[in-house]
Amino acid sequence: MEVLLVTGGAGFIGANFVLKAVADGLTVVNLDKLTYAGNLDTLASLHGNSRHVFAHGDIGDRALVAKLLAEHKPDAIVNFAAESHVDRSIDGPAAFVETNVTGTLGLLECARDYWRSLEGEAREAFRFLHVSTDEVYGSLGPEGKFTETTAYAPNSPYSASKAASDHLVRAFHHTYGLPTLTTNCSNNYGPYQFPEKLIPLVIQKALAGESLPVYGDGMNIRDWLFVGDHCSAIRRVLEGGRVGETYNVGGNAERTNITVVKTICALLDERRPLADGRKRESLITYVKDRPGHDRRYAIDASKLERELGWKPSQTFESGIAATVDWYLANQPWVQRVLDGSYRMERLGS
After folding, report:
1. 215 pLDDT above the threshold of 50
2. Domain residue spans of the chain
């Protein structure tokens, strides 16, 4: 594959994917609506690079998507575009249905029509890869992991909208023959993450010596996946995944939320001690839990390793240290994000 249409490529995971793909010599047509989570500053290093073509627009704009497909003739579409913040879905679920369901439907229809226009090897090689989440599976008990055959049981407006988009992708494969692939990932972290997410939010508040809010008892468990590992998994599925299949992507790094917060505190205490000598753990405060807060997620990524030879390169310890170091070294990027509409206030209460 030489040319990709990437949707949502100015967001956190999408931008990391785009940066690596262009560095590897691929041409990327990057379609992004530039909502609160989209940030062209992340892609500043690609300014003037002929292998990166940015298009400002919505995946639900069928005329625009069809034009981009006809003009650039991509070998694959990788769909990152989504409203993806759970707390925002509690405050305003309609936007999540509009983008994640209706928008994905429009993108699928354009992809189907474009694929049908292809001939020979181009038609045979074309892929539509849909990037989704483990949250569609609901909440786990203390044992077990999500597999690709786990029944869907979404518990937030966000996860419900992603579940609907997953089903649409599956339906377009089985109904029209569109060569689709779906990945369902665990919680991502790493460079360029929007600072309302747990890890960058805690880093910023801890740097400033502010209170560190932790939902409930802090014992909610997530499987943490370094964003660079997630991007490499997507590339591997795109290159070798079986058409019509779903692949779970996990970091094999289950941690409670309170453990994540305390780890960040310890790393920052080592690197940037507070002037008054306090340990940052003393800043932790427990706040009322989020509505519908799933207790535990854990991904079984053995299918991806067995079929395609992928496994994460980062442990949680190495990945979180690299992430803290990146945010310390890139405070101007963070401050430019915070100059916008989000001020690290609580959402979804």
Report:
1. yes
2. 3-193+225-252+292-313
Give residue 294's identity as a one-letter amino acid code.
D
pTM for the predicted model, two decimal places: 0.94
Of the options 3.40.50.720, 3.90.1300.10, 2.60.40.2470, 3.30.479.10, the CATH number for the domain spanning 3-193+225-252+292-313: 3.40.50.720
φ and ψ at residue 227, rounded to 5 degrees: -60, -35
Q: Smallest Cα–Cα separation from 304: which of 245, 227, 263?
A: 245
Secondary structure letter of residue 74 according to DSSP: -
In this structure, how many other beta carbons lie within 10 angstroms of the beta carbon of residue 252?
20
Write the DSSP assignment of 130-175 as a string of letters.
Answer: EEEEGGGG----SS--B-TTPPP---SHHHHHHHHHHHHHHHHHHH
Q: Which residues have a catalytic role annotated? A: 134-135, 158
Pairing of strands 221-226, 254-256: antiparallel
Taking only the tens place, the pLDDT of each residue in 66-89 is 999 999 999 999 999 998 777 788
State which amino acid sits at residue 261. V
